[in-house]
Specification:
single chain, four-stranded antiparallel beta sheet, eight-stranded antiparallel beta sheet
């Protein structure tokens, strides 16, 4: 990503600076005429259940009947006036001319619950991997300086870790900053196998085991100015141990083991790396960033084994299908492209968004679905088994801080960042039998 851009727009430091940053963010990405705050927003009202939604309540609790604009009119205005951020001018316009959106009609996940007690936030406008579900009832997310846990069973929100003050490791590992870190701004995160790895705006890495008190490891990957951690991933390595990988704006990708938290590999690329994802067999790594071409890399030695050519702008997302052959990349040209590593000459499918870049993508663990998130307002669910020709569209208002499927694919969570209607949406896998509403 452009570091100057990141420095100017993405960074929310002290509390008194956060409001200014959000105002600047909205000035760049919204036309004032399309901001819901302009329509005398009514802020009372809390959560929305599936039963309430069936009776006509807006899933976000927005009281359209009391505003001087209808939902349909506001949606049309947003589609017309939302400005997609591009590093390559007119990349999105070129895609709009060449590609058609897959028709709607899929119905794979049903709305279940929206809680406004949870308030997800975003540090940098291009990084949207800040929501992670570890079960169909447990979600971890970033809210300002805090790592939070939400339980959909108890409707309980708890703070797991506060990054605003001083944090220091409670374990001793070589390379760990014993003196710790202060006021760490979290730009990205991953949660898996009871571990959290959080990446910071100054290249920080913080690792915590959810079953232990304190922090296991913290470090600065680099002291270069251009250091933001763009993506982290936790995975099972070829050797059988648990590893994690961090992609940074200094053009580096670093692999660590999660037993002793030692650096195992360091790969360097010609451009800032915005996202990486490991194949399910841990052999191949996708690498995408500030270049039109993405790479497939041998996970053991960092050598390039293939190139991904076709996107018209910079990419910020990637994900592998469980079959170890198919993978997807998300780009600021408003497309998610599907690739078969056996033939990389052209994508097998090009999936176009409605109005913005593809910032986050997830395959379901069974390989049946692909979840594609735009920066704001839209999340798309594609039927991967049906060659991506069926699509469910989830339509809401607000910036999307992240999307996450539970490991069993039963629940889909969507974080929404908005000054008035910040919340966490939950959708449940649609089955032949009807769900019994737990909330009324």
């Amino acid at each position: 990503m452009s570091y100057q851009r990141a420095e100017r727009l993405g960074y929310m430091s002290l509390d008194e600076e956060m409001a200014d940053t959000m105002d600047e963010f909205e000035e760049v990405f919204y036309n004032e005429d399309t901001n819901l705050d302009d329509f005398e927003m009514v802020t009372e009202g809390t959560d929305t259940s599936a039963a309430q939604a069936r009776k006509g309540k807006d899933i976000q609790g927005i009281p359209w009947e009391r505003l001087n604009i209808t939902r349909q009119s506001y949606r049309l205005t947003r589609l017309e006036q939302y400005r997609n951020y591009e590093n390559i001018p007119l990349s999105g316009d070129a895609v709009d001319k060449e590609c058609k959106q897959v028709k709607k009609g899929g119905n794979f996940y049903d709305f279940f619950y929206n809680t406004r007690l949870v308030k997800p936030t975003i540090l940098h406008f291009q990084l949207r991997n800040l929501v992670w579900a570890t079960s169909k009832h447990d979600v971890y997310l970033i809210s300002n300086y805090s790592l939070m846990h939400w339980s959909s069973i108890s409707n309980n929100l708890t703070e797991v870790l506060d990054f605003s003050g001083h944090i220091a490791p409670s374990e001793k590992h070589a390379g760990s900053l014993i003196e710790g870190l202060t006021q760490t701004q979290i730009s990205t995160m991953a949660v898996k196998h009871r571990f959290v790895v959080a990446g910071g705006f100054q290249g920080e890495l913080v690792c915590k085991c959810l079953d232990k008190p304190g922090i296991s490891f913290c470090a600065r990957t680099t002291y270069e100015d251009n250091a933001i951690t763009n993506a982290v991933e936790i995975y099972d390595s070829l050797s059988g141990g648990l590893h994690f990988m961090a992609a940074n704006n200094d053009c580096g990708v670093r692999e660590y083991d999660m037993e002793k938290f030692q650096l195992m590999n360091y790969f360097r690329f010609p451009w800032p790396v915005n996202h990486t994802s490991m194949s399910p067999d841990s052999k191949i790594l996708t690498v995408v960033g500030d270049d039109l071409t993405g790479l497939l890399v041998d996970s053991q030695n960092g050598k390039t084994v293939g190139s991904i050519v076709g996107h018209l702008d910079y990419s910020f997302a990637s994900a592998w299908h469980p079959d170890c052959r198919t993978f997807a990349t998300g780009n600021q040209d408003k497309t998610c492209r599907i690739w078969d590593m056996r033939n990389l000459s052209s994508p097998t499918a090009v999936l176009k968004g409605n109005m913005g870049a593809v910032r986050s993508i997830r395959y379901s663990s069974d390989g049946r679905f692909l979840v594609v998130a735009e920066p704001a307002d839209f999340v798309h669910i594609y039927n991967a088994e049906g060659e991506y020709k069926k699509r469910q569209e989830i339509d809401m208002f607000g910036e999307i801080s992240g999307v996450s499927l539970s490991p069993d694919d039963e629940s889909l969570y969507i974080g929404i960042w908005d000054r008035t209607y910040a919340s966490l949406l939950q959708y449940n896998r649609r089955r032949s039998s009807v769900y019994v509403d737990l909330f009324t």
